[in-house]
Structure formats: structure tokens, C-alpha cells
Write a structure and sequence with these properties.
It is a single chain. This protein has 232 residues and is mainly β. The protein is 3% helix and 42% strand. Strands 1, 6, 7, 9, 10, 12, 15 and 16 form an 8-stranded antiparallel sheet that branches. An 8-stranded antiparallel sheet has the order 2-3-4-18-14-13-8-11. A two-stranded antiparallel ribbon has the order 5-17. It starts with 5 loop residues before the first strand and ends with a strand.
Amino acid sequence: MNNCYYHHHELLLYFILNPAGCIYNKYNRLFLSRILIKRILKFPLDLNLISRIYHYLFYKCLAWRIENLNEKEMPFAIGAHPEFMMTQDENHVFRIYDRQGNLVDSIENRIFGTGGCITDRIEVINTPEGVLPITDHLFDGDALVIENEQLGSVELVKNGKDNPIITVSFNAPLVGIWSPPKKNAPFVCIEPWYGRCDSENFAGDLQERDHEELLDPGKEFQTEYNIIFGLN
């Protein structure tokens, strides 16, 4: 994988917290029961969250299932935070595609404000032939927040190479692309999101928040995304 290292925060949860099985690992399956979520994590709604990682030769499939155990509609958001190491002495770019597999010539980025909230400002970033260079200043304003199903996959590529080191493909309506601002960190994150943080001026309920997911009583939400490892 040519100096590319994959890390996913779900991997940190590969252990048994208690004999009751509120969290347990079996065949790379992470289960958070209503007991753990509501009584220990103090989450105000009843739900089960099941996360699984399927390992294949050259890719991983990461799947989520959320079960609404309430008698009312449940708002929720869920997202991933996989990060990919890259050597600092080599130039890298992102190559980005829409949901039909076409290279994207520009993206609309929702700009972060203060306190971890999003603004109403949007900037258009040109990506000729789908290429977004990773420069020293790309993340000066924090993460790129790409909304409204603009993208379907993002590749991490060594500049001048054709084959990607990593490809992240997803059906999520949003994706965050991030590295710590102004720190020249040796990694980048490509993060499929269902939902996002508050807008600066938002003062409503969760059901009213932009991009919030809503799940009917007794229903399940299921989705997945894939991480494909290149061979160069």
C-alpha cells in the first residue's frame, strides 16, 4: 500500500466492556444496546446501534444498522472518521467523482465558523479533471464540508500517478474531507456523514436541523461504505 496506513476509530472498540454484552466483539461486530446508550452514555432516546466491518482481500466494507426502539420518530446523525497516513515528502491529490462515477470539475464547500458550527457561506472550489491538490493551506478553514450528494467516491492519489492509494466510496449525502488545520499533519480523513453539526444561527429542535436523519418508530436504518486499497 506504499506507506499508506489505514486507521478507523471503530477498531478501538474491539473489546468486551461487560459480561452482559452491552458492547461485544464477535466477527468484527460492534453492538451498542439500548442499556449502554441510554443508561450509561445518557442518550435520551432508545435505540440499538450495530456496526460491522467486513474484511476482504483489497477492501473493507463498513456497515451500520440503527434500530429505533421508541414510540415516536427519532432524529439521528452518524458519520465515520477514517484517516489515511501519507508521507510528507511526496505530493498527494484527491481525485473526486460524482455518484455516477464521473469526475467532478468543481465542488461546493460549506465553510466552518467559530465554535465548531457551520456558516451559511459556500465557496466553490475548482477541481479540473476531478483533481483537488492537497496543499499547505487547503484546510486552513477546517474541514471541507461537501453536502447534497455531490460526491460518490474520493480517491487519495500520489501526484503524477494514475492508480489511487485509497478509494472511499459511499452513498452518504455528505462527506467531510479534513486534516488538522495549519499543522502539516501526515494524514488526511475522508468521512462519509449522515447529518452534520449545527449552523451558527440554528436554534431549533434536532428534527429541524439541516441534513438530520429521521427514523420512524420500530424501523431500521442501514447503510455502508467501502475503503478500497490500491496496489501501487
